[in-house]
Write a structure and sequence with these properties.
single chain; 128 residues; Elongation Factor Tu (Ef-tu), domain 3; two-stranded antiparallel sheet; elongated
């Protein structure tokens, strides 16, 4: 029986991040694979696999609430440049880590008020 990942813990540089539930997603960063057909003649083809290394970048997205503490954390991660380490874990032995992550590759909109969230996009090293 498999258990779904329903309550992941997100840490950046060892600090637990308070995220809006159900907003975390990541891409491993293995790169897109293109499949082409090579011909051997006589109606025989062989698949050729090419990995596009320009797309081999890990990505993480999540949302936080606009609290003073969370905004200050976000700013410190942004100031650290591309030296952040990101970890995702849960109680079902799920562990993914990526190094050399740039937190907030786009300048996040800091929305304030009730029912507002801040979307954070991080990119960099592959998740392993």
């Amino acid at each position: 029986m498999a258990n779904a990942i329903t309550d992941p813990r997100l840490e950046i540089n060892g600090i637990g991040i308070q995220v809006v539930p159900n907003t975390i997603f990541y891409k491993r960063g293995r790169g897109e694979v293109k499949v082409k057909a090579a011909s051997l003649g006589a109606d025989v083809t062989v698949p050729i696999f090419e990995t596009d290394k320009t797309t081999a970048v890990g990505e993480l997205q999540f949302q936080i609430f606009p609290t003073n503490e969370d905004i200050a954390q976000l700013q410190s991660f942004q100031d650290a440049g591309k030296t952040n380490t990101v970890s995702l874990t849960d109680t079902n032995n799920f562990v993914k880590t990526a190094n050399n992550i740039k937190v907030a590759t786009t300048d996040p909109e800091i929305k304030v008020g009730s029912d507002q969230t801040i979307e954070v996009i991080c990119m960099g090293g592959n998740f392993v």
